[in-house]
Amino acid sequence: MPLHIRPLVADDRVVWGQMWCDYLSFYDTTIAPEIYETTFARLIAPTNLVQNARVAELDGAAVGIVHYIYHAHNWRTEDVCYLQDLYVKDTVRGQGVGRALIEAVYAAADANGTPNVYWMTQDFNKTARVLYDRIGTLTPFIKYSR
Asked: Is the pTM value of this prediction over 0.85?
């Protein structure tokens, strides 16, 4: 069965939670259980057009997720799209799943009239950066947080 990208649905709660937990662990991050529940509810709510998610399936099994958010931008008339989280299971990396998820976000953003998609990663995420360098443009911006 070929790779299939589809919207996140309520039945994905367990597998989504496992993949998002693995993603957060990679970044040495934990979040409270209520954040998992709130985030999942927002991602599947048909009335929430700002926060979105897609699932990658390979041979009928969920193997990757991507979360993206539309928001206003003071330098543009149209919204922009922030690709916030991208995760692909270790067992299928290198098979085009990450690229397909990013391209699905590009397509969704284009359909939404949101032609600019951006994302961030840690400098140590060398495997992902190989892909990102092929399909995106590295910017000179440095992120600060409080």
From this structure: yes
